[in-house]
From TrEMBL:
Keyword Calcium: yes
Name assigned to this protein: Calmodulin
Residue ranges annotated for the EF-hand domain, each copy included: 136-171
InterPro entries, alphabetized: Centrin_CML-like, EF-hand-dom_pair, EF_Hand_1_Ca_BS, EF_hand_dom
Entry-linked PROSITE patterns: EF_HAND_1, EF_HAND_2
Endpoints of the signal sequence: 1-21
Species of provenance: Mizuhopecten yessoensis
Length: 205
């Protein structure tokens, strides 16, 4: 009798846990969508919106994925963990890619992602929108090319890419793997560096 009661309790607990996880996921996704809808109504149409708004199906994340994005946002950008990335926080982040980044570059980077015009990049909806619908435009490609071309010689070299990867916390092995596996796959002529044409090919969907 006691065994039956025990297993009934265990099964009930598992069901409750699964139900709570599903409920929390739905509530979070609804919060994201509500925020996006408010911004959509306020945003004026322009030649290039700050961000493309995803559909209902595109913006849904699981709890594990949401937690991973939140940790990523807090670790790399949102140092005071208030859910918003200020100009200074974004500048600090971009300096890991290029320590000579200018205020104009930081301002442009921020404005293109600040969907509600509050002067900051919010975790909801700005950062999650960026994660849900990556921007593969030529403008985005040029933005990152200029950041990663540290010496501004018109090429993004393998050494520059490895240095960036190390700056953002990758191990030497992972940095080498990332540079070789993702970036250098676009190195058509095998000179261990990417010109603009080679680099921009990485931003093709």
């Amino acid at each position: 009798m006691q065994t039956w009661i025990y297993w009934t309790f265990v099964v009930t607990l598992v069901i409750l846990q699964q139900t709570m996880a599903t409920t929390l996921t739905n509530l979070f996704n609804k919060s994201v969508l509500k925020g996006l809808e408010k911004i959509r109504k306020r945003q004026q149409h322009g030649p290039e919106p700050a961000a493309a708004f995803p559909s209902v199906n595109q913006i849904c994340f699981g709890l594990d994925q949401l937690e991973a994005y939140k940790d990523q946002f807090a670790t790399f950008i949102d140092h005071n963990n208030d859910g918003r990335a200020s100009f200074e926080e974004i500048k600090h982040y971009l300096q890991k890619y290029n320590n000579k980044v200018t205020d104009d570059q930081v301002r442009s980077f921020l404005l293109r992602r600040d969907t509600n015009g509050d002067g900051e990049v919010d975790f909801i909806p700005d950062y999650l929108t960026e994660m849900a619908t990556p921007n593969y435009s030529a403008t985005t490609a040029r933005e990152w090319f200029n950041l990663e071309d540290a010496d501004q010689d018109g090429y993004v070299t393998k050494d520059e890419l490895i240095a960036i990867a190390r700056n953002i916390g990758m191990s030497p092995e992972k940095a080498e793997e990332t540079a070789n596996g993702y970036y250098m796959g676009a190195d058509v002529n095998g000179d261990r560096q990417l010109d603009w044409k080679e680099y921009s090919s990485l931003f093709t969907e």
